[in-house]
Specification:
Layout: E1 20-24, E2 29-33, H1 37-43, H2 46-57, E3 70-74, E4 89-94, E5 101-106, H3 110-116, E6 121-125, E7 132-137, E8 140-145, H4 154-165, E9 171-174, H5 177-180, E10 189-190, H6 201-207, E11 210-216, H7 226-242, H8 247-252, H9 256-261, H10 278-284, H11 286-291, E12 294-298, E13 308-313, E14 320-323, H12 327-332, H13 342-355, H14 359-374, H15 393-405, H16 409-413, H17 417-422, E15 434-435, E16 438-439, H18 450-457, H19 496-513, H20 525-536, H21 542-562, H22 592-603, H23 613-618, H24 622-628
Parallel strand pairs: 1-6, 7-11
Antiparallel strand pairs: 1-2, 3-4, 3-6, 4-5, 7-8, 9-10, 9-11, 12-13, 13-14, 15-16
Helix pairs in contact: 1-2, 2-19, 2-21, 7-20, 13-15, 18-19, 18-22, 19-21, 19-22
Length: 629
Amino acid sequence: MLGKYPLKQEPDMYGYMDRILRVNLSHKKVREEPLNPEWAGVFLGGSGYAIRMAFEEIEPGIDPLGPASKLIFMTGPLTGTVLGTTGRFELVFKSPLTGLLCDSSSSGFFGAELKMAGYDGLVIEGESDEPVYLWINDGTVEVRDAVHLWGMDALNTQKKLLEELGDPKARVLAVGEAAENGVLYSCAINDAGRAPGRGGSGAIFGKKKLKAIVVRGSKKVKLAHPKEYTKAAVFMNKTNATHPVMKGVKDVGTSGDLDGLWALGDVPVKNWSKGSYEEICTNLGGARMRDTILVRHSSCYRCTINCCRWVKVDDDPYRMDGPGPEYETLAALGSLCMVDDQKAVAYANDLCNRYGIDTISCGGSIAFAMECYEKQLITKDDTDGVELTWGNKDAVLAMIHKIGKGEGFGKILGTGIRNMAEGMNGKADEFAMHVKGMELPMHDPRCFFAWAGTYASGPRGACHLHGLSLWYELGPDPLPEWGLSGEYPRQSDEAKGKVVRVGQSFAHVVNSSVVCYFSMIVHKPHHLAELLSYAVGRKISVEDLLALGDRIHITHHAYNYLCGNRREDERLPERVLTPLPDGGTEGRVPDPDKQLEELYELRGLHADGKPSRKILRTLELKDIEKKLY
């Protein structure tokens, strides 16, 4: 069941500020425009609204690093409210890494501050001749000179701007040297160590010479039913603070996954060629971090989960004091490269924050290069004299510096795995671990089979956050409200197309509301439907939410189809379809073709991936149908 088509948003626009800020950097012009009420009604906000806007404004054939590219920031109807985890924002752009439309999300406080400054969204277009930054202060907007900030790392840029503006409570999103040097998986950093990390939005910042965006706001979000909303939000906040399932998340954050998932075989080791094993994972894991380098926990806007950790390393040469590495970073820059020194990985994470680099793509690219080095496809002459041997933590750090600075072999590494593999004439395809140009995240489809369909069909390429399908493979009746009743064993392909579809659509709903995935670990769609109903002032059912998620997914998929993405592009690297001889996944591999066949039928897609007229009309996507047909 697709669910009922949601009603259009009411004219009073409860839950929204009813303003989009548009900044043209070529002409240094700033203007405001009203929110589109129809899009707000049927795409909600966040990534959904931004994807719909991108479909209208960003031609699929443009050069992602050309003057026609745009950066679309969006908040959602829940952003900046009393509900915890609502400080997030979504960033949508055509990715220079993949050539597809990418939506990237970030936590912290920046999203709430942007909305409280009076704006649901921000569109950046054009290119500046000289480095600039934006200062958005309660509806007053300035394009300011940033020549003095160019060449500065992202964290010091944040510090410098707060001093310069004299407002320590402002929130800063800034890029580092990696963006300035055109690294295709560079990203902006906000609130110390948060980032809309994937897809290479930082390279677009760099091309537009946009160094930073600073926001400060004091406006309140007007809700349709504030008392009822507050009661429901406080219930969710308390549940997230006290529920037993959340204890581990609060205690060790995502780094605890290394302690818990290695035995199942979910943690990739040595560029996905070995089964995960205890020693390397526990050396990097959350318990070790808690007992050694953890200083304190930190939280995002109004969050009661507090999964973020602040760490301090006093040992040279890894001295640092800042946000601790998350699971994805610990695996990408750790186990994937056979590095098991947590202090070294914490320092590597700090370097990536300062340069503004996606740690997943960075670690994946270095691990790929290490295997190329092992197989003698590249030599020390290619790597500037650095020995890219497995477990060589100093080599990993050296490569991060080279990537960030755009120097020597770092220029090649900074283009990503797909581009590197294409330069090797097919000799490295088997272990080039990407989907559609995006490096795989750090969860193994041989362990949780639904990752196979999730990665292959992910709208931005290989992505765990467009689905989080392992949630639905861990126990009975994972989401009965949306038809996921019974059990979905993790190493079975049965009904995994259904699991992938529901997981992806739920992710779109979460990213359009906008809230954190973790806030929904112990909550269900009806909790979110209740909050949204109280916020915007119209009844939204769980069926409406599933239809909403389907609508956003098909719109995103349709855009990428116009970019040239086809069914044959939705495939996994050969290596993760090759069984391992040991570890928790021994001898088992998923069947992505079986999953995708089921998924395509559920999604209403033709054999080549084109959305059918039937599904477009069912979801009332008439404008999308016109462009596709």
